[in-house]
Amino acid sequence: MGTEAVCIVGRNGMGKSTLCKTIMGMVAPTAGAITFSGRRIDGLAPEKVARSGIAYVPQGRRLFPSLTVEEHLAMLAPESRGKRWTPTAVYELFPRLADRRRNGGAELSGGEQQMLAVGRALLLNTPLIVMDEPSEGLAPSIVDDLIDVVHRLVSEGVAVLVVEQNLRAATAMSARQLVMTSGRIEIELTASELLESTELQSTYLGVDA
């Protein structure tokens, strides 16, 4: 995987989220090895995986309900000093967060929570970000904003690995679609191939024609 966005798609229960958690050191792999930038990272604790260069936007956002937007970002602000992504840069990317900086995590809309989850990951300034179901529960207009953010990150040299159930979002984010079945990558398709074939959608995603 180079500096690009790659989407992992598939039916529910195929192991997509488990793959994310395994990459991030939250679940131990049962076989094989995970390498990143020429170094094995399987067996590392999650914080060490993050320090090795992989940030994570988990499914469900996992914010602190009582902490404000400002406080969420302040936790990682020291590590971002002098780098591309700082709290100021996050506010520029997501102006709505700047408007809501004194609101707690529980007071934010689903879209605002996702913006904060992405912004928090950006402050680690890693070359790779893993996003697990980022469009889940979001309005179509917010999903479009998220797609734009993924494209911008790639244009600025950040690789993005996305697990996505939303076919429209997945194919708009990336030309490369990796289809997972029963814990394995079954086939690689282009976004066009997946969009244009109702047979492939039905077989691998369970989408009815």
How would you summarize the topology of this molecule?
Blueprint: E1 5-9, H1 16-23, E2 35-36, E3 39-40, H2 46-52, E4 54-57, H3 69-74, H4 77-80, H5 87-93, H6 95-99, H7 110-122, E5 128-132, H8 140-155, E6 159-163, H9 167-173, E7 176-181, E8 184-190, H10 191-196, H11 198-205
Parallel strand pairs: 1-6, 1-7, 4-5, 5-6
Antiparallel strand pairs: 2-3, 7-8
The biggest sheet amounts to: 6 strands, mixed
* Second CATH tier, the architecture of the domain at 5-62 and 125-205: 3-Layer(aba) Sandwich
Instruction: Output the CATH class name of the domain at 5-62 and 125-205.
Output: Alpha Beta
Task: Look at the structure and give the mean pLDDT.
Answer: 93
The parts where pLDDT drops under 50 for at least 5 residues are none
Order of helices and strands: EHEEHEHHHHHEHEHEEHH
Structural class: alpha/beta
Strand order of the largest sheet: 4-5-6-1-7-8
Task: Provide the β-strand percentage band.
Answer: 15-25%
Span of the ends, CA to CA: 32 Å
Tell me the number of strands. Answer: 8
